[in-house]
Amino acid sequence: MKSVETILSEHPNAGRDSLIPVLQEVQEELGYLSQEAIAQIGRELRLPASKIFGVATFYNQFRFLPKGKFHVMVCRGTACHVKGSKKVLELLQKEMKVEPGKCSRDKVFSLEVVACMGACALSPVICINGQYYSKVSLSKVRRLLENCRQQAAIEAKA
Amino acid sequence: MAKFSKATDLEIYRSKLQSAYDPNKPRICVCGGTGCNAQGSIKLVDALHAAVKKCGLDSTVEVKVTGCHGFCEKGPVVVVRPENTFYVMVKADDAQELVETTLVKKGVVDRLLYVDPASGKKVVKEQDVPFYKQQTRIILSENGHLDPTSIDDYILRGGYSALAKVLSANSPDAVIEEIKKSGLRGRGGAGFSTGRKWELARKSPGKDKYVICNADEGDPGAYMNRSELEGNPHLVLEGMIIGAYAMGANHAIIYCRAEYPLAIKQLNTGIAQAIEYGLLGKNILGTGFSLEMKIKQGAGAFVCGEETALMQSIEGKRGMPRPRPPFPAQAGVFGKPSNINNVETWANVPLILREGAASYSSVGTEGSKGTKIFSLVGKIKNTGLVEVPMGISLREIIFDMGGGIPNGKAFKAVQTGGPSGGCIPESLIDIPVDFDELYDAGSMMGSGGMIVMDEDTCMVDIARYFLGFLGDESCGKCTPCREGIKHMYNIIADVTAGEGSVEQLDLLEELAGVIKDTSLCGLGQTAANPVLSTIRYFRDEYLEHIEQKKCRAGVCKALVEYRIDAGACTGCLRCGKECPVGAITGNKKEPHSIDREKCEKCGICYEVCEQGAVVRE
Questions:
Q1: Domain membership flag for residue B146
Q2: Less crowded by CB within 10 Å, the N or C end of chain A?
C-alpha cells in the first residue's frame, strides 16, 4: 500500500489543480480520506484542511469513514429506479444495518449509493467489492448478503 | 515504430497494414464492454483462447476483444467473422463447442443463437438481428470490429486520415467552415452549433488555449459515452486533435468520470500510442502544430456537466457554475480561452471531415443532422445502445429496435434528456426525434438516455425521483435551485404519501416557473421539466394520488397494501421465509396471512410468490 507521503512525492510542485487527483489516489489506497491524510495533504499543498474538506465533501466519490469487509455499491440511476432499485436500497440498509456512506458496527458491510454506474442494461445493478451483480431481485440481494456474512464468519474464525 | 514525420508516412503505413490484413481470416470478436465484462466476458476470452489452441487453430484464428457491440441485454456477445455468426449470452463453458462447431465443422451452435421475440425465430447473422438491422451505425460502426487498444487497427480502418488531410490541406478556418456546413449540434444536450462554438474560441485572442472533452456522463440512465470511449477511443482523440488545430489550442483535457475505469485505461493507452506515432504531442505529422493532452478524473458531481462547473473542477475547486459572460471561449479553464464538447460531438468530427459535410448532412432532419446514439433502457425487451438517424420516430426506436415492453405490459412513457428532460406519453410516440421536436414536447434531447416506462411505473414517483436526484446534486450556490427544488420535492413527497392537495399542484407549477426563470445554470433552469412534463401529460395520476389516495402502479408505499389471496395460496411457506420482518404467518399447506402492523411493504413476498397469491392493492 502506498503511503500518503509517496503519493504526494509523485506530485512534485503540486498546485491547486492537483488536489482532486491527490485525494482520489489517497482514497484509492486507504479506502477513505482520514483526517490525518487530509491534514497532511493540506500541509503539502499549502491549503487549509477546511478548504480541502470543502472540496472533498462536494463530490460524491469521497468518503470519510473506512470501508467494511464487503463494500456494497447500489446504483440509483433512472433505469435502475424504474426496475425497483429503491426497494433494493431499502432492503440493503435494513439487512446490513448501515446508512449510505457508513460502515456497519461489525465492520462487515459498508454501503455506497452511486448516482449511476453506467451499466443500465443490467438494471437493477449492485456491485460488491468490484463484482457487478445484474438484474438483482430482492430475494437475490438477501442471498448475496447471506453469502457475505457466512464468508465473514468463516474468516473471523480462521 | 518510427514517428510519422509527414502525412504521407501515415498513408504508406496504412497501405502496409492493409496489404498485410486478410479480411477472410476467421476472427472471433468478443464484446469487451463493461456490460459484457460484468456478465463474464473476461473469463470467456480466456476459455476461447484455450479452445482455439486445443483445436490447433491458434495460428489461423484470431480471438479479438472488441468494444461494446451495444446489445448489452444479451451479453456476453460473440460474433464470428467474416461470416458474422452472432452468438448471445455465451458462457466460458460454451467456448469449446463454439470453436469446434463454428470453426472446425463450419456449422452453427444452435442453442447460442439469438431468438427474435417477435417472430420466435432464431437469427444466425449479426446484420439480420432486428435490433441492429434498423440502426444507422456511423459512430458505433467500428465498435464490434476493432481492438480499442490497438492504434494499428484504427489506422487500418481509415483512422487519422481526416487529421492528416486537414493538417496538410486545410486552413483552420476551412475546418470550422466545414463543421458549420455539416450542421453538427452539440451532443451533450443543449444542441448548440458546434461550428459556431469553435469559431468563437478561434477568434478569442490568447497564446494558450484549451479544448476539453466532457466525458463526465452524469445523466442517470445513459452510458453512450462510456461505450464510445471504451470501444473506439482514437475516434474521440482524432476529433479533439482536429478541433484543437481549428481553434488554435495547444492544450487538451479529457474530463472523464472516475466510475469509468476501463474508458480511462483505453484513453491512456490511446494517448500514449498517438504520441508514439507522432499524431499527438510536439510537431504533429511534421507540421509544427503541437498539442498536449491530459486526462482528469471527475469525482462524481452531476453539476460538473455544466461547462463552467467542469472547469472549476479541473482547477481543483468545488464544481460550482459561475455567471456568464465571460464565456468559456473568452476566459475558461485557468482563465484561458476554452472550448468544451461532449464525447459524441468529438467523435462526429473525424467522420464529417473524412466524408465531407455534404455527405454527413444528408442524414437527419432540417434542424438536426447526422445520427444520435441512445441508451435504450428500462422496461424494454432489447436494452442496449442504438444509433439512429435524427428524425426517426420514438415508436421505431422503442418497438422496432427495442422490441417493445416485456411481460405483456402496456407502454406508458419514455423519459429522455435525463434529469433536465421530461416524460413523453404514448400519444406523442410518433414524433420525430430531433432537438427541436423533443423540446416542443416538454423534454429535450439531452445526452441520449432513453428510459422506457410501463404501466408499473408511477409518474408521480418518477417526478419525485428526479427532484430527489437534483436536490442532492444542486451545488447550492443560487437560492432558487437550492431551496426551490427542495420545496418542490416536499410537495411531491406529500402527494406520494397521499397527503397532497389540488392547490399544491398549482403551487408546484408556479414554483417551477420561478426556478426556471431565475436559476443560475442549466441544472436549475431545467430542474422543473420532469415535474412539468408529468403534470402536463399525467395529471390524472396526480389527481388519483390526491383525491382517491391511490397509486395505480403500486409504487407509492403509503398508498399500497399487500394481502394474501387465501384461495390462490398453496401454503408453500416461501414468502414467510423471505419476509425480512416476519410479518407472514401460516402453516404448511394452509393459506398464509400478512400482519399489517408488522408489514413494511418491501414487496419481497409479491416478488417471490409463484402462485401470484400475494395481492398488491
A1: no
A2: C
